[in-house]
Amino acid sequence: MIKLENVSKIYRSGRWEVCALNRIKLEMARGEFISIMGPSGSGKSTLLQIVGCLDRPSAGKYFFEGKEVENLSEDELSEIRGQKVGFVFQFFNLSPYLTVLRNLELPLIFGGIGSGKYRIRTAMKMLYLVGLPEKARFRANEISGGEQQKVAIARALINRPALLLADEPTGNLDTKSGERIMALLKDLNESGMTVVISTHDEAIAKHSRRIIHLRDGEMVKDEIL
Amino acid sequence: MKLIDAIQLAFESVRLYRFRSLLSILGVAIGVAAVISGVSLGLGNRESIMQKMAMSGADMMFFYQKGESHKFPQLEELTYKPELSITKEDIEFIKNQCKTVKEISPYLLMPVTLLHEGKYYTAKALGVLYPNEAAKISGIKIIEGRALTDLDVAAKARVCVIEKTNFADEIFGKQGLLGKEILLGSMKYEIVGVSSKLYFPYGYPERLIAIMPSSTLQDMIGLNKYTEVEIRGTNIKDIINTREQIRQILIRRFGYPSKLYISEYSTYVKTALETLNLLTFIIVGVAIISLTVGGVGIMNVMMTSVVERTREIGIAKAVGAKKSSILLLFLVESNILTFTGGIIGVILGLGASKLVTSMIGLPFLTSFGIILFGFSLSLVVGIVSGSYPAKRAADLDPVVALRQF
To answer: Whole-angstrom Cα distance, residue B9 to residue B332?
Structure first.
């Protein structure tokens, strides 16, 4: 499903260059549940952003479902992000002043999918899935961090993506909420979805079936559990 | 993304950022109001100047045969010289050739003797070809009896209208003029009407003026000509052109230099016309400035909005929004602002110009055209000033946008 060939990412800021990823060689198959582990600054987020088509590699080749991302237009990347990838951000990235329901509708709206009624029905379905139907009319900034993370996951799932990417999904949550989120991700993976998360927490990584260790932008270990 | 969804989202954002939205709506509203009230006031002012000019006869011109008007003709001038005389054909030619002529009235002005109760008086006979147009141009107002008609002219009726003057009162005494028969030159005329005072040059305070069909007068003196012609143009603005056109026609028909005198324009008319043009210029200038100010305001607000919402744009892009969607979203939003501002501006502008015109006594002039113009300009401003910020937003890199806090 996903193939990275010597992918590097270099951030430039004036005279400074930071190599966030260095020659990553990696393949991910459909239905996998992968954790990307490493200390902060090791390049976990960057890798997820590239895999999620939010960013392009500086060097190397990245194939998403056999298509080389380098050759895709910005709009085609937008379409992949909207239709095939669900991205859960570390800081949730909900629109704080919109209601939970409206936040969930956004991917459908931008994808030009369905009528208003269909969108609300789909969004409600997702809220039931993550167990938050009663929060539908709340604004995103009126609910707790754990709830926001669930809404973020619900939003990532709304277009039924083949690939779910979660950047530190438990990083800003207490242990109990974190466990619940991981259980949800596990369920999703068991229903056939490819799930990739990043974490610096070994206990969280243990939930997955494969752990990729990163250090200073380099892949140091690929461990199958 | 569907347009209806973009509109809905844009409305939500307008509501969310109420104060900022209000400010830009206000900016456009004031701009549009300034355009509409400025243009309305300008038009009202113009109209009032034009009315005043029309009242002072600025939309008129005249020409006459030299030596034949306003004084007694010399003997040799009374001799009929066809090539030098203004005829009915000339009048009709001008009427057909010059479309900016609204009214044209030829006159045959002749000194005649009046015999009344054994006494001779000097009088002036004013023969008119088109009684209706003559009445309009010369301001002949009937105060007793009736006016001359086309039928009188066609029938060469021996009727006349006498100007009411002290002089007339002296001759005829106080016992009413209507129905009396008077002997003018060699013919008897029945007085069918009395007109109020004519204005110069046809009013001669020391003479009796008898207005009569030109056909009757021509018959009496045996000359088939007119001595002068008065013309009113359709439009004050065109009167200088009209005059030039007629001058060319006359030169072609009578040669140059001919024995015709064509009226010149007073500097007053020239100044007034220049003022009118200046006024139009100022109106357009004010309109452009106000809308530019409004447009810059909107662009400012939209730019702030892009910066403020960088993260939101990043989120939108991360969940699959295309460039075009973001572009559409921001354009719709800026157009909602200008549309609302436009409507408020139209109402404000009409109200303000109504108030001011009634206060300073100008005609309140506005048209659907002005409203439509001001309003559609505001939409153009919305598109133009919304485009750049929208483009900036659409071009944001999602990763960079999401890094903003």
So the answer is: 9
